[in-house]
Specification:
With 256 residues, the protein is an alpha/beta fold. Helix content is 38%, strand content 25%. It has a 6-stranded mixed β-sheet with strand order 6-7-8-3-9-10. It has a 4-stranded antiparallel β-sheet with strand order 2-1-4-5, with no helix packed on it.
Length: 256
Amino acid sequence: MIVIEAKDIVTKFGTRTIHDNVNLHINKNEIYAIIGESGSGKSVLMKQMIMLLEPTAGQINILGENLQNITPKKAQELHRKWGVLFQFGALFSSLTIAENIELQLKEYTNITKEMRDKLVYSKLELVGLEPYVGELYPSELSGGMIKRAALARALAMEPKLLFLDEPTSGLDPIGARNFDQLIVSLRDSLGITVVIITHDLDSIFSIVDRMAVLADRHVVVEGTLQNVLQSQHPFVEAYFKNEYTKERFKDRIKNV
């Protein structure tokens, strides 16, 4: 079942063309990566999916809704069905972690304060954080804890879709791998679809089901890792088939 589809997306900023007929689709319960070189429009495409930007032309469908024709009421309903983890967490520095997680619950639901508190601390537990973290401020957390706290906030409304922008950026290798495994665990236990912008080869080779590679202003290849590895596009060759990558992931690149 397709839950996100981009059709013929064109994005222009002035005279600069970022996307030129970008096409991709994301299936339910996938961990799907959007990868590409710097400036290829990965973050722009994700912002279009979450309605922070509009494409110049083309169409994006999410959970059966055409974003280009959506009404304000439908847009608000759709916003509640996804969570977003921005690259640096984007937590409100003046609020505690618990208050950050509680924000959407206060805005979009009528549940009691007692129930909100229970949900907040259940989300902290879900992402592997101790209850005391809820009383801390973002400035008192390590980089890895900030990522997990921001993820707890993204999960507050029990979304169907989870958007992650460079989720392992800035983490040490052990922290990054633990975060990857957390994403897989959440996908499996909650039945959500995960969309990741990443350049982390460990993530790409270990947890991603399918991906789209952006280069030359469009998707040059889409599919599983093996589908991508069959591409002879210069970016794919340079990114996936250099000697370092082939040696490090030789068990996964046997047929290349």
